[in-house]
From TrEMBL:
Entries under InterPro entries matching the protein: Beta-lactam-related (IPR001466), Beta-lactam/transpept-like (IPR012338), Diverse_Enzym_Activities (IPR050789)
Signal peptide feature range: none
Species of the source: [Torrubiella] hemipterigena
Lineage of producing organism: Eukaryota, Fungi, Dikarya, Ascomycota, Pezizomycotina
Domain named Beta-lactamase-related: residues: 30-353
PANTHER family, sorted: BETA-LACTAMASE-RELATED
Protein's UniProt name: Beta-lactamase-related domain-containing protein
Amino acid sequence: MSSNNIFDEIDAFLVAGKPSGTTPANVLAELGATSVSLAVLDGGKITSRCYSNYGYNEQTVYQAASISKAINSLAVMRLVEQGRLALTSTVKDVLPQDLVALLTEGSPAAQRPLIEGITVKQLLSHTAGLSVSGIHGNTGDEDLPTTKESIAGSLRASNPRVRQVELPGTTYRYSGGGITVLQAMMETVTGHHYPDLMRELVLEPLGMARSWYGVLPQDEENAASVYVTALQPFPIKHFNFPTMAAAGLWTTPSDLLRAIAAVQASLDGEEGAFLKQDTARAMLEEVDSDVALSWFLKKDENDKPAWFSHSGHNYPGFFSLVIGSTDHLGSAEMPKNCGVAFMTNSEDGANVGHMLAVAVAHRKGWPMSWVRKTWSMPLGLSGQLAGSRWKAWEGVWTDKDGKHTYEMKALEGGEPGLVFDGVGSLQLVPAAGRRLKKENGYEEFVVEGMEVVMTLEEEKDGGEKVVKLSQDAGTVELTRAK
């Protein structure tokens, strides 16, 4: 379990074994991150830390990219509660005729009723069958395309025209274009420009004081610029997104967790919560493929929602993730009112931010069903004792072709090590990854100094044991040779 200050604990692991004077920000820069801003929600309390060699701090704003969609959903649900929208409201019900005509332009006459009948719920859940997955953004701060021009894919827009390409309501198809149609519907029913309606409906009520949609204010000096590597800035500080509901939010990890906390309070039915309990539960009800209303659900071993989340990527280097716990459908052993968020501004920063977020959850002892299954290097917990569990896997292992041998053995001092093809004695360091520490020790290890992970597995009730060796190219299952 973690100490009182999770950030100090992670900092110590980051610099362990490094030359004197090395800072955590230096270590993260070596891994490719210009900066990582990290925030933790634990029992309803938010704490944060920003790792940067460029003067960034916890109040520095980053582009949230597609997390904009999740925060947008809070405004939609408020409009539903106010009676200005319904989840069953259709494109034809809400949009002015010229926008309806634009959406149906060029489509066969028989298809037009399908387009006109697309609902708010389908747009929120990416089941409307609309095109334009991602949107690239525009350079410059002035004279951005209008919402209508973005939907039309005009010359000034950075995306093709939004079209219906699949049957509505039948399957999940991620669509920033669909969220832009929803942006137009929200502007229509409120009569307000999108940044203003989001400020009034969500950002101000939730105290998200370092958040806004659209271009940066002219006097804003504490904003992250995008980098290609940890050291090489991109020629343009950032792109701007007229498709604001899809990708146009500037914010901090702490503000994102304020939104998470508001949803959690709403799910619990707390008095004065941001949403009514039924509304919040409807927002997190799965529609298709673990997707709710602009939130992605991560389920526990009983197939019940345990976490709700969204990630983001704005080209070329803004990456972000926000995730919060929920037990509203009876998920097992879920922590109460917890979550984590990170934001970064370099192309290699995503893996680094994810490593830190996973390390937080691991040290807190939170269930790890939300951790992505694709390759992601965990943080090595240098100095932590491995425990005795690994000894049941001691011995020589081999891959299915018998090309290589991997011997797990005790090094001097009794901690586990790896001898690869009979060469060297590489130390195995406990990892802050998907596997939580068992009572008798760790079962996931990092090969010290390398991006290699070894996971110890066994069948239930002490059955056959295997070792899984994970590297960037994938995972190989090893079987015992001796």
